[in-house]
From TrEMBL:
Region annotation Disordered: where it falls in the sequence: 1-26, 68-87
Keywords: Cell membrane, Chloride, Glycoprotein, Ion transport, Membrane, Phosphoprotein, Potassium, Potassium transport, Symport, Transmembrane, Transmembrane helix, Transport
Topology of the protein relative to the lipid bilayer: Multi-pass membrane protein
Occurrences of domain Amino acid permease/ SLC12A (ranges): 97-268, 368-668
Name of the protein: Solute carrier family 12 member 4
InterPro entries: AA-permease/SLC12A_dom, KCL_cotranspt, SLC12_C, SLC12A_fam
Family, similarity comment: Belongs to the SLC12A transporter family. K/Cl co-transporter subfamily.
């Protein structure tokens, strides 16, 4: 639309439509213009910001990527965009979350160990174990639901949620713990499958056999190792060949689990009226291994003749019944048969209420049966059912907890869900509720239906080598045996499928460098190398060969993962970050902290040494990622926590200045950059790093001369160059570059504004203006002196390393030498504190500290030395003490001549600056200089005036002016020759020369000399003389640190 600003408006029908983006529609009222906001008002914004419609279109078309693929934050490459568009996710809550969680939660522990846990712990403590574990996972699921519904969660499950909530360090550490847990889970499922195969399906397949009862356990373990390794290899091949077959079989494996659980409930209900026949043979009150004999009796009748039974022959020596030598316990006690499954209405629940923990090797006994306690032979031990491991409440918690894991299955499938933010919370919490009810009711049913000695019989030796839970099932024990075998095989395949993809996702995040190789795989994205590593780690679990020993290891890693899920939710909730807006509203930070506490408690309850090992592994991974410097910014909660903690600490620091005991130099290092924006004196940063040794605050500042709008890019480049140099010199701190029209003003801005609140600098470090004598430009040293005055006015300490190029690098080591302190005036203790701080660094550690102080004629030098030694002792500083006496002496000719030369030079430069023509040339020359620097560029307020026009014709006034100028030149020269130095300057020069002689004499070979820096004169006319005095004072010394205190005590003798 065009606008006309004339006073006489143009009628609407005559206004031209010159904008090509405007449209014109005719109606009864004339013309109508269509408003195009993007082309008329916001035309310039379209180059850097998208239209709202475009943004919404991209968000709607967002597709979750598959686990292990490129991170969702990165833009898709051109090659990826040419690939086939993936199918849109269409799985609902039931198929996508609920059933996968059920399959992962129900597993080997339910079928192989829950009856044994109930027998050992009793119903009450078993309910407590189940309640603790399920409550822990339920609280974790609530926290996970809050995180999962706080935005779109690409596939990656717990690792993605934790790493994006707590940062790369925690994410990498917990991600690897989750990976190790999933890998050991595959080993546990394989061991469970092999136990079912060798104990209940095909016992004849055992390769190793025990020669006596002592070798039974070792033979079984060796069989588990061999068959477990074979099974692991076959499963790895299946996963390598095609994951799709594993996913297709998942529903079959889930059906096996559900059918097995239903058969248990059916058998329990049937046992009310028709309990299954599983008699148990008891000798006295001891349980016998049922498959070692045929009849549960001492004698049998064959053809009206009473003959010894197989049981008799097992306990007695061969021979007739009257003369045979028998086990005394066998003779004294009767053989009886009791019902193994009394049924739901039998009242056996009262006997199974309480715990019966047993040491290893103890024989299973029934409390209600009569027994004569007598001597028995160890040779008959194999006839009894005994405990294979020592049991306790804490051990059973560690063994049971893996049966509560698997709650992350839904979040791992978030890429396939139609509405992940709705399905994950609902499906996961329903699955945990279902499984918790199944576990709790199973505990009660097992305790109410099965005899106590059978419950405590881990491998079913008392019921003729049947799976104990199978004896309760209906219609046949084989339903449970076959169903549990296939479910454990399926769970093992699922773990072997998920673990490599999790490792691949961690590797592709590139936060752990040595895992980078595992990010690669087959062209279709399958993680080949990650699968290989997973197989090797799972083999370690297989070689352990005991389900009861692998389960606590698995528990540790999963508990560690769940702990950090709860921590992530709690941190995000308490920080109240603007981005924390979960759709799932039924969470609270107190629930997350309770879940976190329960995870930590369960870790130490299960196995305190495994807990320490798991936390040590996570800690080492965390420190490794932190040491490598993860260059990831995920907007994580730990960063927000750091900001909140920093804010809190800064507000606390604002209360008042730090106590003398807490004072340490907080540095503002003023750097000079060259024309290429490189740091001119990097050893200033080296010195700062050696002084700070990683402690306290360091701000590195520099000034660029110019206009901010024009020099913004230059400022960013300078900042990056300084940051790179800080990294090289290992300076931990912050960088600040300012743009100012004059360098002097920029330095003042830095001194005033650097830092925040209580974290402000208290010490300024700047370099010496080298070559100031040779330069005709006074701005070099005037900037320096102005900075000294500004630091004094701001009550800041000042350090000026002179000859900084000779200072040692961080790679050098001084094996001997001295750090000499020349304490002329008291500066608050800065001179004492700085050598102590330097000696904390490895470069200066071997140096000795010497303190010199100067005594004049009216001072008692002996008493001064004693007092100084006492003072240093109270300060806890080890140093040699020397008092140097300075006697009055006549002013030497050298001193007089040096003062004269100084004043002549000042006078000459002053006259040169008075020349108008010279001033114009200087203005023109400096207008060509682009880059501002700290100590050598413009500082004088120069008014740029155009050069005078050249007179082409001579006038009377011009001729007379030229004659006057020629006559004045010799007079000025004669004034310089006849100049007499000022007496105060001569006295100062005399003092500087004499002090320098003493310092050079005593400290010419010192590694570093620290010296009080005199203050600049109040009268600015003497500034140049001040620079000369400093030069004279430090002549002949290789490394000098001029120190000026900030006007407060920085060291104390009190504790």
């Amino acid at each position: 639309m065009t606008y006309n600003f004339n006073m006489n408006p143009i009628p609407l029908e005559h206004r031209p439509n010159t904008d090509k983006h405007s449209t014109r529609d005719e109606d009864n009222n004339g013309l109508r213009f269509t408003v195009d906001l993007y082309c008329n008002i916001y035309r310039e914004e379209l180059d850097i910001r998208p239209k709202v419609s475009s943004l919404l279109s991209r968000l709607v078309n967002y597709t979750n990527i598959t686990q292990g693929a490129k991170e969702h934050e990165e833009e898709e490459s051109a090659e990826a965009s040419r690939r086939k568009t993936p199918k849109s996710p269409n799985m609902g809550t039931l198929m996508g979350v609920y059933l996968p969680c059920l399959q992962n939660i129900f597993g080997v522990i339910l079928f192989l160990r829950l009856t044994w846990i109930v027998g050992m712990a009793g119903i009450i403590q078993s309910l407590l174990i189940v309640l603790m574990c399920c409550s822990c996972t339920m609280l974790t699921a609530i926290s996970m639901s809050a995180i999962a519904t706080n935005g779109v969660v690409p596939a990656g499950g717990a690792y993605f949620m934790i790493s994006r909530s707590l940062g790369p360090e925690f994410g990498g550490a917990v991600g690897l713990c989750f990976y190790l847990g999933t890998t050991f889970a595959s080993a546990m499922y394989i061991l469970g499958a092999i136990e079912i195969f060798l104990k209940y399906l095909v016992p004849q397949a055992a390769i190793f056999h025990a020669s006596d009862h002592h070798g039974t356990d070792s033979a079984m373990l060796n069989n588990m190792r061999v068959y477990g390794s074979i099974c692991l290899s076959l499963m790895a091949v299946v996963v390598f060949v095609g994951v799709k077959y594993v996913n297709k079989l998942a529903s079959l494996f889930l059906a096996c689990v559900i059918i097995s659980i239903v058969s248990i409930y059916a058998g329990a209900i049937k046992s009310m009226t028709h309990p299954p026949e599983f008699p148990i043979c008891m000798l006295g009150n001891r349980t016998l291994v049922r498959d070692r004999f045929d009849v549960c009796a001492k004698t049998v009748i064959k053809g009206n003749i009473t003959v010894p039974s197989e049981l008799w022959e097992s306990f007695c020596s061969p021979g007739n019944m009257s003369s045979a030598q028998c086990d005394e316990y066998f003779i004294q006690n009767n053989v009886t048969e009791i019902q193994g499954i009394p049924g739901l209405s039998s009242g056996i629940i009262r006997e199974n209420m309480w715990s019966d923990y047993m040491p290893k090797g103890e024989i299973l006994e029934k409390a209600g049966l009569q027994s004569v306690d007598s001597h028995w032979s160890m040779e008959t031990f194999s006839m009894y059912v005994s405990a294979d491991i020592a049991t306790s409440f804490t051990l059973l918690v560690g063994i049971f907890f893996p049966s509560a894991t698997g709650i992350m299955a839904g979040s791992n499938r978030s890429g396939d869900l139609r509405d992940a933010q709705k399905s994950i919370p609902v499906g996961t919490i329903l699955a945990i509720t279902t499984t918790s009810l199944v576990y709790l009711t199973s505990v009660v049913l097992f305790g109410a239906c099965i005899e106590g000695v059978v419950l405590r019989d881990k491998f079913g030796d008392a019921v003729n080598k049947n799976l104990v839970v199978g004896t309760l099932s209906w219609p046949s024990p084989w339903v449970i045996v076959i169903g549990s075998f296939f479910s454990t095989v399926g769970a093992g395949l699922q773990s072997l499928t998920g673990a490599p993809r999790l490792l691949q996702a961690i590797a592709k995040d590139n936060i752990i460098p040595f895992l980078r190789v595992f990010g690669h795989g087959k062209p279709n994205g399958e993680p080949t190398w990650a699968l290989l590593l997973t197989g090797l780690i799972a083999e370690l679990g297989i070689l352990i060969a005991s389900l009861d020993m692998v389960a606590p290891i698995l528990s540790m890693f999963f508990l560690m993962c769940y702990l950090f899920v709860n921590l992530a939710c709690a941190v995000q909730t308490l920080l109240r970050t603007p981005n924390w807006r979960p759709r799932f509203k039924y969470y609270h930070w107190a629930l997350s902290f309770l879940g976190m506490s329960m995870c930590l408690a369960l870790m130490f309850i299960s196995s305190w040494y495994y807990a320490i090992v798991a936390m040590g592994i996570a800690g080492m991974i965390y420190k490794y990622i932190e040491y490598q410097g993860a260059e990831k910014e995920w907007g994580d909660g730990i960063r927000g926590l750091s900001l909140s903690a920093a804010r809190y600490a800064l507000l606390r620091l604002e209360v008042g200045p730090p106590h003398t005991k807490n004072w340490r130099p907080q540095l503002l290092v003023l750097l000079k950059l060259d024309e290429d924006l490189h740091v001119k004196y990097p050893r200033l940063l080296t010195f700062a790093s050696q002084l700070k040794a990683g402690k306290g605050l360091t701000i590195v500042g520099s000034v660029i001369q110019g206009n901010f709008l024009d020099s913004y890019g230059e400022m960013q480049a300078a900042e990056q160059a300084i940051k790179n140099m800080m990294e090289i010199e290992r300076v931990k701190g912050f960088c600040q570059v300012v743009v100012a029209s004059k360098v002097r003003e920029g330095i003042v801005h830095l001194i005033q504004s650097c830092g925040l609140g209580g974290m402000k600098h208290n010490t300024v470090v700047m370099g010496w203006p080298y070559g100031w004598r040779q330069s005709e430009d006074p701005r070099a040293w005037k900037t320096f002196i102005n900075t000294v005055r500004c630091t004094t006015a701001a009550h800041l300490a000042l350090m000026v390393p002179k000859n900084v190029s000779f200072y040692p690098s961080n790679h050098e080591r001084f094996t001997d030498g001295n750090i000499d302190v020349w304490w002329i005036v008291h500066d608050g203790g800065m001179l004492m504190l700085l050598p102590f701080l330097l000696k904390q660094h490895k470069v200066w550690r071997k140096c000795r500290m010497r303190i010199f102080t100067v005594a004049q004629m009216d001072d008692n030098s002996i008493q001064m030395k004693k007092d100084l030694a006492t003072f240093l002792y109270q300060l806890r500083i080890e140093a040699e003490v020397e008092v140097v006496e300075m006697h009055d002496s006549d002013i030497s000719a050298y001193t007089y001549e040096r003062t004269l030369m100084m004043e002549q030079r000042s006078q000459m430069l002053r006259q040169m600056r008075l020349s108008s023509a010279e001033r114009q040339r200087e203005v023109y020359r400096h207008s060509l200089v682009r880059m501002g620097s700290l100590y050598s560029d413009e500082e004088e307020e120069v008014i740029e005036t155009p050069p005078e026009k050249v007179q082409m014709t001579w006038t009377r006034e011009k001729v007379e002016a030229e004659r006057r100028n020629k006559n004045n030149a010799p007079e000025n020269f004669r004034e310089l020759i006849s100049l007499k130095p000022d007496q105060s300057n001569v006295r100062r020069m005399h003092t500087a020369v004499k002090l320098n002689e003493v310092i050079v004499n005593r400290s010419h070979d010192a590694r570093l000399v620290l010296l009080n820096m005199p203050g600049p004169p109040r009268n600015t006319d003497g500034d140049e003389n001040y620079m000369e005095f400093l030069e004279v004072l430090t002549e002949g010394l290789e490394r000098v640190l001029l120190v000026r205190g900030g006007g407060r005590e920085v060291i104390t003798i009190y504790s």
